[in-house]
Amino acid sequence: METFTQPKITGYRQLSETEVALMNEGKALAEQCGQYIEKLRRAGSEHGIQVPQPLDQRWISIGATQLQQGFMAVIRGIAQPSTF
After folding, report:
1. What does the alpha-carbon distance between residue 58 and residue 28 come to, in Å, rounded to a whole number?
2. Where are the domains of the chain?
3. Does residue 4 surpass a pLDDT of 70?
4. What is the mean pLDDT of the chain?
5. How far apart are CA 17 and CA 6, in angstroms?
6. How far apart are CA 38 and CA 35, in angstroms?
7. What is the CA radius of gyration of the chain?
8. Is 0.85 topped by the overall pTM?
């Protein structure tokens, strides 16, 4: 694999190949979750899946926000920035 030297970003360190792989895996999982959330948001619409009653979009939005926060937290746990 080709070595890539990341430009210096204040508060961040150079990541190992293993850390980059873990971060990319997390980003892929986050993308899958995002697609699922979009599917839930379309449920019941004319272009979405049919459901017997409308889904509670408020809770779907709360879940989306918390999933985003969770993925940001684990990515930060991998990157271990030294800044706030």
Report:
1. 25
2. 17-79
3. no
4. 91
5. 12
6. 5
7. 18
8. no
Q: Annotate 31-82 with three-state secondary structure.
A: HHHHHHHHHHHHCCCCCCCCCCCCCCHHHHHHHHHHHHHHHHHHHHHHHCCC
pLDDT, position 19: 96
Which among 9, 28, 42, 8 has a CA at the least distance from the CA of 75? Answer: 28
By percentage, how much of the chain surpasses pLDDT 90?
69
- Mean pLDDT of the region 36-54: 85
Amino acid residing at 9: I
- Answer left, alpha or beta for residue 54, where phi above 0 means left and psi between -120 and 50 means alpha: beta
Query: CA–CA separation, 60 vs 40, rounded Å?
Result: 7
CB contact at 8 A, 61 and 45: no
| Contact yes or no for 79/24 (Cβ under 8 A) | no
